[in-house]
Amino acid sequence: MKRILVAIDFSDTTPRVIDLARQLAKALDAELHLVHVRELAAAATPRTLGYGLAGMPELAPMSGVPVPGFDPMPQPIPDSEDQKSKLARWQKEIAQDGIKVILHEPTGAVAAEILDQADTVEADLIVMGTHGHGAMYNLLVGSATKGVLKHATRPVLLVPSAKSS
Questions:
Q1: Phi, psi dihedrals of residue 72, rounded to the nearest 5°
Q2: Count of beta carbons in the 10 Å neighbourhood of residue 121
Q3: Which of 2, 20, 23 is nearest to 127 (CA)?
């Protein structure tokens, strides 16, 4: 095992995921590939929801009415400065342990980008956290973990969130 891909989502589980991946990399003399996917903001296409204007100009893009300056293409959700500093700090801390660490920040659908990066770097293992959300959350929002597990052709190690007392 020479390459471990670590999915970073800045959840409460992320420090546990990074710590476990760091221990594995050190024990196996493997390199770590930290992957933070910059998600795309959902863009509503005209007439998707079938709403008219009905006195609500914010619905104009969905009604098919042309709106000057409206760009229907989804845009990446900007990372906060706090997230950027955490990524840099984790990368530095891991490197100080003598582990080769490479940061990847693709933009797109989370599960698909994690799997694409795993293929690109030829990862031997994908390490990611679970959040323990319920079925309704996963139905409405989706689950990157579920998507990775369903389509992965490589081993996936799931790190559970800390149990609350």
A1: -75, -5
A2: 16
A3: 20
pTM of the entire predicted model: 0.73
Q: Is 101 helix (H, G, I), strand (E, B) or coil?
A: strand
Q: What gap in Å lies between CA 157 and CA 59, rounded to an integer?
A: 43
| Average pLDDT per consecutive 10 residues, the chain (165 residues; last block may be shorter) | 94 93 96 91 49 49 49 55 87 95 94 96 95 59 80 94 64
Please enumerate, as own/partner, the contacts of 110-113 that have beta carbons within 8 Å and a separation of 24 or more: 110/9, 110/37, 110/39, 110/144, 110/147, 111/144, 111/145, 111/146, 111/147, 111/148, 111/151, 112/147, 113/35, 113/37
Domain architecture of the chain: domains with CATH: 3-40+76-159 (3.40.50.620), 42-75 (no CATH)
Instruction: Report DSSP state, residue 153.
Output: S
Alpha helix locations (H) across 29-80? 60-63
pLDDT of residue 133: 63
Per-residue confidence (pLDDT) for residue 73, from 0 to 100: 53
